[in-house]
Every structure is written in C-alpha cells, then in structure tokens.
Amino acid sequence: MLIESRTPGTPSTPGVALRPWCADDLDDLVDAYRDPVLRRWTRVPVTNAAEAGRWLDGALRDWADGRRYTFAVLDEQADGARLVGNVVLKGVTPERSAPEVGYWTASWARGRGVAPRAVTALSRWAFDRFPGLTRLDLLHQVDNVASCRVAQKCGFVFEEVLPARPPFPLDGHRHALHA
Prior knowledge:
Layout lengths: L4 E3 L8 E5 L5 H7 L3 H6 L7 H17 L2 E10 L2 E11 L9 E6 L8 H16 L5 E7 L3 H9 L3 E6 L9 E7 L1
Helix pairs in contact: 1-3
C-alpha cells in the first residue's frame, strides 16, 4: 500500500514528501547513519548494507502489523527528490493512550526546516488515518535542544519531564499535540 503525504513548498523552503521506505533507499540510509549526531539519538545501528537491509525489513514488517509506520522524508527539488530524513509513528495500539512521533534529519538537510515540516505532515496523516486518535506524543532527552524546538514549531506543547530510561541516560521531555 502506497501512502504519500506532502507539505507544500514556499519560495524559501521546498516541500517534503513522506512515503514508506523501500529497498532503493538502502544506500541513502547507510549514508545518513554515517553521521555521529544521528547515531547519538537512535537506538539501532546502521553502519553497512546488511544492517540497513535489516532496518528496512523491520520497517516493512512494522507497516504490515499496523503498530508502527515509518516514512522516508524526501526533499522535493526542481532536479528531483532526495532523502533528507525519517519520521515514524510508534505504538499505534488500543492499549496506548497516545502514539509517539519520532524522527531524524540527515546531516545534509539540517537547519532547513525539514524536521518540522515532516513531523507536521506525519501528525496530519496520523489524525486523518486514525479518526479516534486524540493525542500524539513527542519524546526527547532533556539535552536534545533541537528536538525541543521541533516540538514547539509543530504545535506540540510541553507536558512533563520523564525520568531517564534505558538506553537514554538522562531525563526526557514529553510534548503532546492534541487533535
């Protein structure tokens, strides 16, 4: 099933498109994970083609079981689209009061508003796709100032400080977006 979501571009920022990850993304995924900043905030290492293949297989399995939806984020330029990030909706289950939004931005795309546009597109998609959904959570470690800014830009309101839990050694913030 192909699901695509787009945010319109402006004169200063191109639009982004979200689509499920596919096998053709393997090399771009490995390239993105070469960034030590990205690796600091992610749990699953992707250092070679085999690990990228397992990551992509997991993303496809997650789509199939309907509990986690991972999208490749593409920057739409006049000369074509380029992979610039990832957004994910985690924990879509009846037992969970609010699914969690996660994301990362490739090093070559940071500072251009990619993460806020992608998180906003994912949030709209989630509220449209799951009509009973009333809240989304965005969690990050307290020292991840960039994620705090992304949450604010997307309309997620700071709700609480969460105690540290493995694999993250520091407390975290929970931001929420209500439908």
